[in-house]
User: Fold this.
Amino acid sequence: MNFAQRSYQKEILDREGIPAADIRLNMQELNFINTMLGGHKITLDGFRNFFSFGNNPEREIVVCEIGCGGGDNLYVIWKWCTRHGIRVKLIGIDINADCITVARERLREASADLIVSDYKTVDFGTPLPDVVFSSLFCHHFPEDELVDMLKWMKENSVRGFFINDLQRHPIAFYSISLLTRMFSSSYLVKNDAPLSVLRGFKSGEWKKLLTAAGLPGHFIQWKWAFRYLITVPVNLKVK
Assistant:
């Protein structure tokens, strides 16, 4: 296995015609993996980087996730805000209608706009979301499309954006391969989870992508388990 080079093999989830029941099981298992391995905590860290919550904001915060899948990241943010008395409006965008169906069930108690669309075609009008983010989304794209995505996230956020995604690393690959082989019931998870690691980026590659997108003011943090949290503020000092 060559971890020096990124894989461009397509994940099964990126294909058309996957049964809704298979997508639902995939979303359920990914939520469990993200909870157990700290992925949701990283998303929450990225969100909190953009706000000082010592005094609760007077207005509602608007947060948008592109590639929102089953809505578990947005749910984690909503639960945290609810516990702390912070008003938040959630926007979730995913091109897969079955993912949005799962997200609607997950976020039925929250204030959420859930949109079936390619993120590039969404026009927020004014005001823009305060923060835009993605989690386990960027590795699905080739580099040229990812540079365009980074530019879009900057242009469509008031405070900035953050990314939570996988580090390409042999320990991450072999660990998730073993865990999913032993415990997963989803053929999507068994195939796509290890492949996602192979499609992930290393720190130096992220720096090149962010530079190509004209985003010099960025922060790259390594997080357990083998993730990167990339934070890009727009006219804002982050914590």
Observations:
- The CA atoms of residues 11 and 192 lie 5 Å apart.
